Every structure is written in structure tokens, then in C-alpha cells.
Amino acid sequence: MKHTEQKIVEIARNIMHAIDWNYDRNKKLSAGFHSLEEQIKDLDKLRDSGYLPIDYDVAKATLKPYWTVCFDFEPEAEVGKNFMFLDIDDTNGEPMNISHKQFSGKIKKDSDGNYIVQK
Q1: What pTM was estimated for this model as a whole?
Q2: Rounded Cα distance, 15 and 9, in Å
């Protein structure tokens, strides 16, 4: 684990500000870490159950340790029990994906170094 939970939460707040996505800033944020070992165990279970849709070695090569930060929608959205999830790469602190129940997209940097959300 390269980053601390506190640092990841700080990075997540900055990313949400940079992509201009609102969330309930009154709620305390926490982050969950997904280790490489944990992901390999999950991948092994899929392979052993016969539900792995791609080659095991190809799937394993794409794994990397990451964090997930959960955000509540802003209070004015009047959307109950709806959350946003931001995945952040532990190796470099860069965002990977953002999703909620109606959207999932990748976060990339444009040519000017600004974060943008892609479908």
C-alpha cells in the first residue's frame, strides 16, 4: 500500500472538484483498499467456478492495487440511497473510474492536464 487512506480521501476530494461533480460535503469520507492479493483470490474463484470470460493470464496482468471512495449525492439532489464510487490507483494516486447507478466512466487527463470523465 503506497498511499494512506487520509491521502486518498484528499486526492478524491480534489478530483471531484476538478471534474465538477457535486457530493454531500457534510458526510465524512472513507476509502477502502483493494490489494493485488485480494483481487487475485477473487480472480481465482471466478476461474475455478468457470465464470471467467477472458484468459486468466490476461485478466491477471490488468490487476493493480486501488482504492474506492464512496460519495453521497449532494442533499439537494433528493436521490435517496444513491452513491458515487471513485476508484483511485494506489501506485500513482490517479483516478481510474467513477460510477453511480446510472453512469460509469473512466477519468483521464486531457492535453492540458485537466481531468475529464469519459463514457
Answers
A1: 0.87
A2: 10
